[in-house]
Amino acid sequence: QVQLVESGGGLVQAGGSLRLACTASGSIFSINAMNWYRQAPGKQRELVASVTSGDRKNYADAVKGRFTISRDYAKNTVDLQMNSLKPEDTAVYYCNAAIRRYWYQSDGDYWGQGTQVTVSS
Q1: Are 69 and 63 spatial neighbours (Cβ–Cβ below 8 Å)?
Q2: Residue 85 has what pLDDT?
Q3: Strands 10-13 and 115-120
Q4: The CA-based dihedral angle spanning residues 73, 18, 115, 98, taken in that order and rounded to the nearest 10 degrees
Q5: Which of these, 24, 39, 41, 87, is most buried using a 10 Å CB contact count?
Q6: How far apart are CA 71 and CA 68, in angstroms?
Q7: DSSP string of 50-80?
Q8: 50-67 tens-digit pLDDT
Q9: 33 Cβ neighbours under 8 A, 6+ residues apart
Q10: Could you tell me if 82 and 66 are in contact, meaning their C-beta atoms sit under 8 angstroms apart?
Q11: pLDDT confidence tier of residue 92, bands split at 50, 70 and 90
Q12: How confident is residue 117, by pLDDT bands cut at 50, 70 and 90?
């Protein structure tokens, strides 16, 4: 079994900061990309930030310069530091990872349960 567990969501005023954390655990051979997605009410889930196994990072235009994704390869964790938060950042944030459980398998797509981020104006 593989689990992704997120933490760090909450309520914050506009202009504030939050840090989300995600830990992958279980039977893991390797992890390729680790990503953060978000889904606001009535909207589609969207990619917020990603980091590859080679530490290449990408961000959605809406969060560039405000959010920073970081990864600890030894601990199988990925964090999302969110600064200068805006009300439009309000959403459920999901951790996602491409994980290979055994050397002979291809990567599987795994998701966390989501954590709510609410930014008040």
Answers
A1: no
A2: 98
A3: parallel
A4: -20
A5: 24
A6: 10
A7: EE-TT--EEE-GGGTTTEEEEEETTTTEEEE
A8: 999 999 999 999 999 999
A9: 50, 51, 52, 53, 97, 98
A10: yes
A11: very high
A12: very high
Q: What is the pLDDT of residue 82?
A: 98
Tokens of 27: 């039977």
- What are the tokens at 20? 């989300």
| Amino acid letter, residue 24 | A
The whole-number pLDDT of residue 110 equals: 98
Q: Say how far apart CA 80 and CA 116 lie, in whole Å.
A: 13
Q: What share of the chain is helix, strand, coil (3-state, %, to 5)?
A: 5, 60, 35
State which amino acid sits at residue 95.
Answer: C
